Amino acid sequence: MSTIPDPVAEKSGFLRMYMSSHPDTLVAYAKWYGKVTEPLLSAEMVGIDTKGMTLACKLKNGSSKDVRVEIEPPLSGYDDVKPRLLEMKAIAQEGLGMIKTPKISTFHFPRSALSVIFVVYPILVYLAYAPTFSPTFSPTSGSASTSVITQAVDMITVPARLLTHTPFLGPWLPSIFYWLFWSVNVGHVFEAMYTASLCRRHGTGLGVGAAYVFATLVCGYHIWRDLRKRIQDARIQSVMKVE
Fold this sequence. Notes:
Number of helices: 8
Largest sheet: 3 strands, antiparallel
Low-confidence stretches: 137-146
Domain DUF2470: 18-88
Transmembrane segments: 109-129, 176-194, 206-224
Organism: Lentinula raphanica
Keywords: Membrane, Transmembrane, Transmembrane helix
Order of helices and strands: HHEEEHHHHHH
Pfam families: DUF2470 (PF10615), TMEM254 (PF14934)
């Protein structure tokens, strides 16, 4: 059975040649990601693939050390190499105190988060809290209620009540969606804590930070994923300015 070739390893020769003109970047990789604490003279990239790179380091005491730098998450392909290596460079230089951490001073709400507000939550709330039984409900006949409001509620909740009358999982569906609804909320709390750490690290300020945390509580990963993308773009821009 043939294995799929690594798209980055296939072009490692060119990448090694290109990175040879950026020795400061390789040294930063070795120090920050490779945890090399000894004084370094130089670092050379001797291999790279989608999962990481291997650096040959020369130390000031005359010895050598090979360091494996893992790339997490792995590169999706060759086109992912440049932005990811630039981001890794910025993170390493930030950690080593060589450049300042990029600041995020504005709030951005991604459109993808609207699906949580208008699709995910309505479905979860509907299936978790819709009445499963009504004295006026009959799958074969209309509502007998004299109240217009009750009739409207009956009509709206018919699909949910029909689902609960299906075999096997039907009676358990409200409980399943109830726990799913609250599991999503609990997950959003932890995601909001992660968002708060990003905001604190990147100096958003109280107002912007509060907006990001609140939005994450409501919409979850759509918010912090977009924030991380903005941070990545800011890092790349800062590195490009230095270069």
